[in-house]
Amino acid sequence: MKALSKAVAIASLVSAGALTTQAAQAEVSFNAALVTDYVFRGFSYSDNGPALQGGVDFAHESGLYVGTWLSNVDDGTDTDVEYDVYVGYGMEANGLEIDLGYTTYNFIDAGADTAEVYANVTKGAITASIYHDIDAYKTTHLGLAHSSELPNDLALDLSAGYLLDNDDIYGDDVIDLGATVSKTIDRFDVGVTVTYVDYEFTDDDVLFYLSASTEF
Please, what CATH class does the domain formed by 6-215 belong to? Predict the structure, then answer.
């Protein structure tokens, strides 16, 4: 489950800087991605298979934005499709980029819908985040992400997350780590991602996937 684009899990985080840029243009934008595995916070939601994902966003010059995102899923429930709807506000204050929002995660025919409120704070290349489930699961996910440039026009994105299992849904708190190396080729961003999740009840604690995404 993801706020803006699970193809970049998540990553999985969209920085407030990107949101501020979109807001200044007050435009509608579209995104599409193909991934070899739909991974979010260290877990596969496509049974280690490929997923086609996409969404649409509208950002107003005031900083307000709304959007939706969808993906095929295979997570052991009765649904084949997930769609997310979100609304938020991006702003700058004291040299910080701040993003506040609300997301609903919807699974057709599965009865597992839920919602989170979130806050992202970005300073330079570092983003700190908190996502709190206010509906079904009552979990709190704390995140830290860092973006940097590598030689040959490559980019490196690192992320670390800590899920507080407030309502004993998972049976324990969960740690997730991720690293993505990506490159922009023409209009496409192509990437290689490896993730790790510290959770005793999963068979796949290390996951590896490829992604290709674009915005228009």
Answer: mainly beta
